[in-house]
Structures are given as structure tokens and as C-alpha cells.
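The following block was generated as part of the benchmark described in Methods. Ligand: NAP.
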Amino acid sequence: MRQIWISKAGAPSVLEVREAPTPEPGPGEVRVAVRAAGINFADIMARMGIYPDAPPIPCVVGYEVSGVVEAIGEGVTGRTLGERVFAATRFGGYTSDLVVPAAQVVPIPEGVSFEAAAAIPVNYLTAWYMLIHLGNLQPGDRVLVHAAAGGVGQAALQICKWRGAEVIGTASAPKHARLREYGVAHCIDYRNQDFEEEVKRLTNGEGVDIVLDAVGGTSFKKSYRSLNDLGRLLMFGASSFATGKKRSILAAVKGVMAMPRFGAIGLMNDNKGVIGFNLGHLWGRIDLSVKYLQQIIELVADGTFTPRVDRSFPFDQAGDAHSYIQDRKNFGKIVLTP
Ligand SMILES: NC(=O)c1ccc[n+]([C@@H]2O[C@H](COP(=O)([O-])OP(=O)(O)OC[C@H]3O[C@@H](n4cnc5c(N)ncnc54)[C@H](OP(=O)(O)O)[C@@H]3O)[C@@H](O)[C@H]2O)c1
């Protein structure tokens, strides 16, 4: 089989395609012949050496794949050879053949492509957990979505539209026209505009009901201040730590120092909620994640949600794929194809 390895921490050029023996599935596992593997920002941070959850480098990252079941381990029921499936995986997704617990595999309905299916697990589960499970999203809510043109941002936008909520989205300016086309009510260029001021202006000083913030650092403080009474801030990442394509310890330290320290009394007096979320630490709830994935894929199959796959890159261009995201060119998901 072929895998993409992070050979050492560094720029996108450290990604290398290597051959490895194809593994056999053990009891309770299946092997999937991968057709598409999703890239997530966490993979980029892992490549840079600033993602504490990643396996020690050299390693193979990748949280999600789609493909065809090509081998079935002992004791697995309900799966058939040749079946089209997608799955979340605890790393190792940048591979042509993946052995994964059968409990993590979900069938792909007819009409949904491998690329679209590979774009679902991380982005849609993250947005779903934050908005539906934790955020109590209600019709008419106003939601501030940072990096609205990214993978999670697009999933969040579609969930908000489905639930009748209004989205204010931050993104690089060239992405605004498409964001409006997809239903974002107001776009903010967060690199050149003060988003807190803009949210105040757009909401007549009231603020929003929910903020999804994976920028981190000072952004969390400003997002908190952008909340209306009873508002909820969902914190789920720190993309601002990735200032260039190589690790900057200074940027990471500055980012950590700039994180707010929320106090119990302040939160009570403000009537605001602050919630952290990390899908990568939720493997103990895989049953719930699979249940949500089944609901999500049905909503994809009936056209309610449309995973936006911007581009697929072949394995030997994985470095270009990472650069494409870090150069902020992506609109939606980037996938790798073996
Ligand atoms: N906690 C969790 O469970 C979880 C799960 C999934 C994702 N996340 C986090 O959510 C964030 C978005 O992830 P994603 O996979 O949706 O992203 P993505 O699709 O890879 O999109 C990245 C986009 O983020 C924006 N961005 C913001 N800061 C950036 C930076 N420093 N360098 C490059 N791009 C930057 C850019 O859009 P603009 O040009 O519009 O700025 C870029 O196109 C990341 O921080 C990720 O770590 C967390």
C-alpha cells in the first residue's frame, strides 16, 4: 500500500509517499481500499510540529477516509465486500488501504461521491456537535462562524441554514462573494476589519447568539465580547498559531498567552456560556458520533447538505494540497486521492 508520511516537522515538502505492506484486518476490523482521504487543519499543524495530539513524527496522519470494503475481519457482521463506506479514523488516513474498527464505518448512499463522503466526518461532526448537541441552535439565532469558507465553516453554514439561523461569516475577502451566494448574511474580512466592531454594527449592538471560533488567542476574547445575553462561545482550535508554513514557537507562546481566562463569577454575571470542543478527544463516544454521521449522510443524500469539495490532489502532490490550504486558497474541503 501507499501512505503519505510526515518525514519530519516542517514545510509542506516534508510530506513523502512511501510503500508499506498492506495490513490484514483483525477481529472486529475491516480494511478499506481508500478512494479519498480528507485533509484537516489539524494535519497541517501536525506537519508543522504544533499539534500535541499527533503521533510522534515520523507518522501518518489523516482523520477520515472513504472507499470500498476490501477485507473483513473475524466477527464483523453487517459489512459486505465491495460496499462503499466512509469512516473516521484515529490517524493513519493518508493511505491507500486502511484497517479500521468496523464500528467506525458507515455506508455511503447511492449518489454521494467518494470525495464528498471523505469531506464529512470531521467537518460535519464538529459543526454538528457544536451547533446541535452543545450549542442548542435555534431558528432565528444569529451565529458568527469564523473561517466560514473552510471545511468546518461550510458544514456549519449548511446546518445553520437547515435550522433557520442566520450566519455572519469571517473569511478572506476574495471568498465573500461565494459565501453570500451560499447564504451567509454578512461577511467580515477578519484580517483587515475588526470583527468585534463589525458584529456590533451589524447587530445594532446586540451581539450574536453563538460564535464558532477556531482562530484562538485574542480572537476568543473578542468572540466572547461579541455575544448577546445567553450567548455561547464554542472554542475548538487555534489556527492563529500557524503563522507561516514552519513552526514558530514564539507565535504559539504568544497565542497561548493571549488566551482568555474565564472566571466563574464573570460568566454567571454575564449570562454567557463558554464551551470547548475537540473531536479528537471523543473516541470514547464513537457510538454517538456514528449515530450523528448516519443522520448527516441522510441529509447529504437528500440534498439538504452539500459537502463542498474544492479540489482533490493525488498522493504525490500532498505537499501542494497542504500549501493550497495554508495559502488560504481553499473554499471548502481538500481531499487526497491515492
Ligand atoms: N476541535 C475540533 O474538534 C476541530 C475539528 C475540526 C477543525 N478544527 C479547527 O477548525 C479550524 C478550521 O478547520 P478546517 O479543517 O475547517 O479548515 P480548512 O478547511 O483547512 O480551512 C482553512 C481556512 O482557515 C482559514 N484560516 C484561518 N487561520 C488560518 C491560518 N493561520 N493559516 C491558514 N488558514 C487560516 C483560511 O480561510 P480564510 O482565507 O477565509 O481565512 C483557510 O482557508 C482549524 O483551526 C482546525 O484546527 C477543530
